[in-house]
Design a protein that fits this description.
This protein has 182 residues and is an alpha/beta fold. Helices cover 27% and strands 24% of the residues. The strands form 3 sheets. Strands 3-2-1-6-9-11-12 form a 7-stranded mixed beta sheet. The protein has a 3-stranded mixed beta sheet with strand order 8-7-10, with helices on one face. A hairpin with a 5-residue loop joins strand 4 and strand 5. It starts with a helix and ends with a strand. The relative contact order is 0.19.
Length: 182
C-alpha cells in the first residue's frame, strides 16, 4: 500500500472505534505513558491536542500542567507550526483545522519530550502523519528531544513507506505495549 491508501484505511479504522473503546484504549495508553521514567522526569513537553479519534490527551494536558512546562502547536502557515506554552483550556482558540491552539506568546524550545500524533507507525519508528509535513519539519530541528508517539495497536504496521524527509519516533505507546524503536 502507498501512503494515501494507508491513510485512508487507518482513518476509517479510527472512525470505527466506539466512544467507549476510544476512552478505554486512551486510558490504557496514558497509563503506560505516565509509568515511563522518561515521562516522569521530563520538565518541558510538547503535546498535541487530540482530535479525529486520536488517543485522548486533554486530561494529560491538565495533569502535566501542574508540574511541567507544557506546549502545544500553533500553525503559522501551511507548512510550519511553533510550540507555544499551554496556559489552560480557557486560553485556547480554534485553529485552521478546528484544533485548539494556545493564545500564549511564550515559545518553547529545548524539549525533553515531544509527544507526536500519527496515523500509522512501524516498529522501526517510521511515522505516517496526515500528509502536510508539519511534524516532520518541526522534528527535524529537535534532535535532542525524545520523540514519543501515542497510537492504538491497530496503527502499528509491519512496514511503512519512508521518504528522506520523514522523521522517525523513538518510542510508540499503544494500549498493549511500549515499543522502543531506537
Amino acid at each position: 500500500m502507498n501512503k494515501v491508501e494507508i491513510r485512508k484505511k487507518l482513518i476509517s479504522e479510527r472512525r470505527a472505534l466506539s466512544s467507549a473503546d476510544l476512552k478505554l484504549k486512551s486510558e490504557r495508553i496514558m497509563k503506560r505513558l505516565r509509568e515511563l521514567e522518561e515521562f516522569r522526569s521530563a520538565e518541558r513537553i510538547l503535546l498535541y491536542y487530540s482530535q479525529f479519534e486520536e488517543p485522548e490527551t486533554e486530561g494529560l494536558l491538565e495533569e502535566c500542567r501542574k508540574n511541567k512546562e507544557v506546549f502545544l502547536p500553533k500553525l503559522l502557515d501551511s507548512t510550519t507550526f511553533q510550540a507555544l506554552l499551554y496556559e489552560g483550556p480557557e486560553k485556547l482558540k480554534e485553529g485552521p483545522f478546528g484544533i485548539p491552539e494556545p493564545l500564549s506568546k511564550v515559545e518553547g524550545k529545548n524539549f525533553d519530550l515531544i509527544i507526536v500524533p500519527g496515523l500509522a507507525f512501524d516498529r522501526a519508528g517510521t511515522r505516517l502523519g496526515m500528509g502536510k509535513g508539519y511534524y516532520d519539519r518541526f522534528l527535524s530541528g529537535q534532535k535532542q528531544a525524545l520523540r514519543v508517539a501515542l497510537a492504538f495497536s491497530f496503527q502499528i504496521l509491519d512496514q511503512l513507506p519512508k521518504d528522506p524527509y520523514d522523521e522517525a519516533v523513538d518510542m510508540i505507546i499503544t494500549e498493549d505495549e511500549v515499543i522502543r524503536c531506537r
